[in-house]
Amino acid sequence: LALTMDGEPLPIPHGFPVRQVVPGLYGYVSATKWVVDWEITRFADFSAYWTDRGWGERGPVKTQSRIDVPRDGGIDAGPTVIAGVAWAQHVGIERVEVRVDSGQWREATLAAVPNVDTWVQWQLDWTADSGQHSIEVRATDSSGATQTEKRADVLPDGATGYHRIDVEVG
User: Fold this and answer.
1) What is the pLDDT of residues 134-164, one digit of tens each?
2) Strands (E), the chain
3) pTM for the model
4) Is the distance from CB of 89 to CB of 96 less than 8 angstroms?
5) Cα(167)–Cα(130) distance, rounded to whole angstroms?
6) Burial class, 132, CB count within 10 angstroms (exposed 0-12 / middle 13-18 / buried 19+)
7) What distance in Å separates the CA atoms of residue 105 and residue 31, rounded to the nearest whole number?
8) How wide is the angle at C-alpha 111 spanned by C-alphas 122 and 72, nearest 5°?
9) Which one-letter DSSP state was computed for residue 72?
10) Average pLDDT, the chain
11) Contact, 78 vs 169, CB < 8 A?
């Protein structure tokens, strides 16, 4: 149960007076805000708000990665950085790889993290040539499992597939 955030009382938008956090599960299962009481039951004996709307009852966080920069759209030619985050709850990230235009996978540099349940920032230097380019990213967790290439929608229990952006380099 979280009572504080950054050493201060939990702000109202983040769930004051108390928020429940369960590492390794998506927020609709594990990040209940504004907790005022609990009902202890079993999955089979209770119909929850989000599961009634098509979400999976357990919502395990899958090994995934995301490109945050550059954004879809236009960038200048020359040296630039491709960067983002990756996560693999309870096991951590061992490697993040990036490829441009379906070329060879190149290993990105990972930032330090305090524990395996923390998202890891990654970056890769890239010299962008003029033209249209697609950039993809994939993560491998510390058990050696690489995120799946197969794309799936967020429903019922989290999206899968390599994150891809398209950029026009001018």
Assistant:
1) 999 999 999 999 999 999 988 888 889 999 9
2) 4-5, 8-9, 64-69, 73-75, 78-87, 93-100, 106-107, 109-110, 120-128, 131-141, 163-169
3) 0.80
4) no
5) 10
6) exposed
7) 35
8) 20
9) S
10) 91
11) no
Q: Give the position of tokens 């007076």.
A: 17
* Token pair listed for 60: 């395990």
| 130-134: long-range pairs with CB below 8 Å, 24+ | 130/77, 130/169, 130/170, 131/168, 131/169, 132/166, 132/167, 132/168, 132/169, 133/100, 133/101, 133/166, 133/167, 133/168, 133/169, 134/100, 134/101, 134/102, 134/164, 134/165, 134/166, 134/167
Give me the mean pLDDT over the 4-9 stretch: 93
Record the tokens describing residue 104, joined without a space: 């060879």
Higher pLDDT, 86 or 153: 86
pLDDT single digits (tens) 49-81:
878 888 887 777 899 999 999 987 889 999 999
Q: Are 33 and 3 in contact (CB under 8 A)?
A: no
Q: Is-contact 167 70, C-beta < 8 A?
A: yes
Give Cα 101 distance to the centre of its chain.
Answer: 23
* Run of H or E including 27: helix 27-30
| Cα separations in angstroms, 70 against 54, 87, 97 | 33, 19, 16
Helix (H, G, I), strand (E, B) or coil at 57: coil
